[in-house]
Design brief:
Radius of gyration: 19 Å
Number of strands: 8
Number of helices: 10
Order of helices and strands: EEHHHHEHEHEHHEHEEH
Amino acid sequence: MYRNYVFDFYGTLADIRTDEENPYLWEKMSEIYSALGAFYRPEELKADFRDLERREVVRLGTRDAEPDLTKVFAMLYREKKVECDAARARMTAVTFRALSRKFIRAYEGVEDLLGELRRRGRGVYLLSNAQTDFTRPEINMLGLTGYFDGIFISSEQGCKKPSPLFFEKLLTRFGLNPAESIMIGNDESADIAGANHVGMDSLYIHTAISPKEYGRVKATYRVMDGDFRKIRKLILN
């Protein structure tokens, strides 16, 4: 049994569907911006958002960089000469996510496993390629925040999986020994390859929102039918 368990979030602990291409999303976001003095047509807002997002990636300068989209939402106000403080930027990000999210739910067995790990005194951590103002509220919505000893989100750290730097930041921050830790995730190229880079064991779970390509990266364990409940038998016994 391991001392530390590091989980991915989307596709591993939580099933989610979003649609950022829906015209309704951009219509409503343009109404919000315009109501606050930053006048955008829906198609203009979408194009400017994507352009500013790309610029942030370039500014960060590495392939594994992760821009903070809340900063992009703030830039969109400033492009129209409208002031935007941190609270407005965050609320805009939360609203965007709510409008683009079709549903989110925890997989069956998630709370049981996280609770059992806590009862056994094991370290439980989250390492997610995600946006903090999208993901932290969603972790709260699912009632999972209290299970974690630490939550690391890529937009906060400026890098993402599979970058060894992202893993090493977590290991260093909490003093974790990679040989005593396991990474559980649904993306081979991010979760499993990243764990391999830093000497961690790994468990790959294949779910409906896993990348289509898989089977190329060696994992210590595999659950191929998406049944989260099977993880318990593999890593607790």
